[in-house]
Amino acid sequence: MLPEKALSVRQPWAWAIMFAGKDIENRSWQAVNHGLSVCGEIVLHAAKGMTQQEYEDAADFMASIGVTCPPPYDLWRGAVIGTVEVVDVVRESASPWFFGPRGLVLRNPKPVAPVAVNGALGYFDWQSRRTDQFPEPARWMLPRGRPQPEAPRTHDLFTATERERPT
């Protein structure tokens, strides 16, 4: 059974938490003071929104630390994608993923079959925000010269039936 509380993180940062060793989720001081300092296991939600500039900036940063970011059409958005444990809130860290001013220290990421969920700011009860559809990719996210993929392929750990929305 998945934890009740979720935290929404924009892509490709959510992917990096699940698959690339991102062990810090950076938050503003105000966000940490509004309940984000709660520790324990949470559900990780990949936010629906992702601009081309956000993607390119994140991919460039990841490349600078030796991480290859998947193409945008391979990233789940608007979905619960796993669980992670929040173990601390810090003001500084030696982690290459820390930008500050505060960071949620993350451990033990565990991918799950994606579930379409509308996100929210801060921690939220994801069960009450389920939806029937994953968001369509923006035109810039599509591979050039190839048909649109049916679903993200990178780290596609699940069969088609496991991708179905749980009842």
Automatic annotation (TrEMBL):
Record region (Disordered): 138-167
Alphabetical list of InterPro entries matching this protein: PUA-like_sf
Amino acid composition bias (Basic and acidic residues), ranges on this chain: 152-167
Domain of life: Bacteria
Protein name (database record): ASCH domain-containing protein
